[in-house]
Amino acid sequence: MSVPKVPYNQRLCISIEEAADYSMIGEQRLRRIIEDDVSLEWVLKVGNRTRIKRPQFEKWVLQQYNL
Q1: What band does 1 get if pLDDT is binned at 50, 70 and 90?
Q2: How far apart are CA 1 and CA 45, in angstroms?
Q3: Rounded to the nearest 10 degrees, what angle do helices 16-23 and 27-36 cross at?
Q4: How far apart are CA 16 and CA 52, in angstroms?
Q5: Residue 43 neighbours by CB distance under 10 Å
Q6: What is the pTM of this model?
Q7: What is the crossing angle of helices 16-23 and 54-64, to 10°?
Q8: What would the pLDDT profile of 4-53 be if each residue is shown by its tens digit?
């Protein structure tokens, strides 16, 4: 039985690939932003994986683009 996929806008955390798809910011650009600024509140490190806290990420994107 397959598990239904939850849409990005209903998840608490998403991967960098999903965040790039969701925000229309390039994956490599997001990786560079995360690498350059270690104080970002929307980045969650889980072992060797990086997860994005979607609600905080949305606020950050809106602030960056003054939307």
Answers
A1: low
A2: 30
A3: 120
A4: 7
A5: 19
A6: 0.82
A7: 40
A8: 788 888 889 999 999 999 899 999 999 999 999 988 999 999 899 999 99
Question: 41 near 26, Cβ under 8 Å?
Answer: no
66 Cβ partners below 8 Å, 6+ apart?
none
Asked if residue 11 lies in contact with residue 54, where contact means CB atoms within 8 angstroms, the answer is: yes
In three-state form (DSSP H/G/I as H, E/B as E, the rest C), the secondary structure along the chain is CCCCCCCHHHCCEEEHHHHHHHHCCCHHHHHHHHHHCCCCCCEEEECCEEEEEHHHHHHHHHHHCCC
Looking at residue 66, its pLDDT comes to 77
Residue matched to tokens 């990005």 = 8
CA distance 66 to 1: 44
